[in-house]
Amino acid sequence: MTQEKTEPSLSKYFANDPPSFFDHLANKEGKTTSDIPDAYVSYDYLQSSPLDTKCNIPDSVRDLWELPPIGVGAPAATTMPGVSVATDLNDPVQEAVSVLIDPIEAQHRKILSPDDVTQDERGLRELIEHGCFRSGVNLTARLLTIKQQGFGRAGYAVKHSPNSLQLWFTRIALLVKLGQFEIARVEAEPFESLNKPDMFYEFYHPDMHADKKGSMAPFSFRLLLAELPIYLGVPRLALDRLMELLAVTSQIKSYFERLPESSTQKDAERFWHSRETRILHSIVNCSLLVKDFSLADQLIRRLVDDPAATVDEKRALLSAWGRIRLQCGDIYGAEKKFSETKRFREDQANPDLRELIDRGLLAVAQNDFQSALGLFQKASALDGSNTMVYNNMGVCLLYSGKLKEAIKLFESAVQRNPKMALNESLMVNLATLYELESNNSKEKKVALLKLVNKHRADLSVGLDVCLKLQTVV
Questions:
Q1: How far apart are CA 315 and CA 310, in angstroms?
Q2: Higher per-residue pLDDT: 1 or 170
Q3: Average pLDDT value for residue range 448-470
């Protein structure tokens, strides 16, 4: 598929190096996850990468990965993937509206479908930008079918390309985002760790890829496959895979460190150092899931002490470290980490958003809900769109015995900014409060469903979990 010069290719648009969970703590506090434990904050693999915009990294640096040796006289193992579901993913919101509200209203639900966009990368980008992730999955099935990798094609030999691998990465990332972990597992299985010979340019005739060398698979695809066991309930396997990925990445970084110094060499070294850092963030998450807090502490200290880390990155790391300490029940340790963040803050007199949230969480851990509420209210004044702050304010009101005030707070947040406030976490909390308020909560939940129908294309958790509508199939 060719692209106009002004149009970024799919591999550049969908992050070759996704941001880490520390970026989410620093900038996107309102993002939430579904079935992953609280200690784990997931990455959005479909965000654009800051690395790609900071420097122009040549493909020879970006794609560097060693082609695995092929045994003499033995056939080269190849990757033979295929779409595993014969039909499109259904829209659960539309189904729920049809059952609980009105079939006619369900038919008028306005979201983009694969038929509404161009049948190419540009159309896929448009679907994702509008939050139509299921439609994005369905379009990837069409595009992969064109490449002879659609339904029923698993187990058949096929020629791969950077474009086809990017489509697979995008598809599996979307499936993970939607919580479709079993489909993601089945479709990711043939790729293993992306080290089969047909994942490399050298496997094919030189004319096919203009003598390019290295890995055709995006680095984010390697990272996603390494992390996938987390979502399948086997974080120790993910930890092993991430350690292997870290070892190779560190070797490549060391290779560039040994080259004669130049601007190109420095850019390459920084680029691979950032990838190494990104993997370390993932390993921290994994270590929390397996309750290896010693490893998490060791790695975060390494990241904080990294000379390449910016002041804001150090603050985000220390803030995350403090929150981890809170989850361990170590209030004193959390307080120390939060205090460390202050020395990196320019305005020592006036606390900023992160400090207010940290202090609020600390107060919650000490069961001082009134003080916590005051701190979260100050944070809300600094950033009125931050739904995580509203969530915490609602929890403080609830535990202060002010159930109706908590409900009003959540409802006002939804009315002011429905697109932002109708996230999974806030909706779960609001539906739970409706149940605590009255045994006849279904009517209010249905009203909330109407808002979801109007403002949200997709949810990352099922409606039965999100709105506690047990009648939804």
A1: 9
A2: 170
A3: 83
Q: Which two tokens stand for residue 450?
A: 């109407």
The helix/strand/coil state of 110 is: coil
Strand ranges in 122-191 using DSSP code E only, listed in sequence order? none
Answer whether residue 23 shows pLDDT above 80. Answer: no
- pLDDT tens, position by position, 273-310: 999 999 999 999 899 889 899 999 999 999 999 999 99
Q: Give kind and range of the element (H or E) at residue 171.
A: helix 162-177
CA distance 384 to 99: 35
Please provide the distance, in angstroms rounded to a whole number, between the alpha carbons at the two ends of the chain.
39
Domain map of the chain by residue range? 384-473
Tokens 């509404």 correspond to what residue? 116
Q: Left, alpha or beta for 459 (phi > 0: left; psi -120 to 50: alpha)? A: beta
In CATH, what class is 384-473? mainly alpha
| 345 contact partners, CB below 8 Å, separation of at least 6 | 315, 352, 355
CA-to-CA distance for 311 and 438, rounded, in angstroms? Answer: 48
3-state secondary structure (DSSP) of residue 424: helix
**235 vs 222: CA distance, rounded Å:** 16
Residues in a beta bridge with 426: none
The answer for residues whose C-beta is within 8 angstroms of residue 228's C-beta and 6 or more apart is: 172, 176, 181, 184, 185, 188, 238
* CA gap 100, 442 in Å, rounded: 10
Query: In DSSP terms, which residues pair with 200 in a beta bridge?
Result: 215
3-class DSSP state of 215: strand
CA distances from 41 to 33, 38, 149, 345 (A): 7, 7, 32, 24
pTM over 0.85: yes
